[in-house]
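Question (not urgent): is this output format expected?
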Amino acid sequence: MLGIWEFYSMLATHFQKKLLEAGCDEAGRGCYAGPVFAAAVILPKNFYHPLLNDSKQVTEKNRNLLRPIIEANALAWAVARVEAEEIDRINILKASFLAMHKAIDALAQKPGLLLIDGNRFSPYFGISHHCIIKGDGKFASIAAASILAKTHRDSYMESLDSEFPVYKWMKNKGYGTKDHRDAIAIHGLCEHHRKSYRILPAD
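Got this back:
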């Protein structure tokens, strides 16, 4: 049976060897409130960290530990977001792709191939892509992107908590937990909620 460190070390360092690769992932698609965040990360070929994995499989403490390590060691990285208002206007899938495009736009180096977590993507002009289902648990660059997208989004939602404390975003980060739903039932929606999600019950 594989130990925990051996499991994490099974992340592939690359999809192919010829082109410079950027892993891309998003965070916050299912949230009731706040932006969707995306990250694009180009890692060195020899990058390894025993804790690196899909952000959903890593504790909050270890995600926060990994964030500065990834940022310091990546050849290039960028994080971008699309706000709730835009999500409502174009839908969450398109907003997720837009956030990824914005992150790719901001990379200091231009990759030759994009590794996208999931099964769909809106092509980025001039760069080919490969969609990988559950890629954040298979490739180090996508896992790194998932960590950055998640930690940057969590930090952003925590920064909003002092302005909207009733929703307890410091704790739930905008997800539809019971305390968040209860607060919405009492106080209604605010400017950061995604109105297109039909969070409030129908009259």
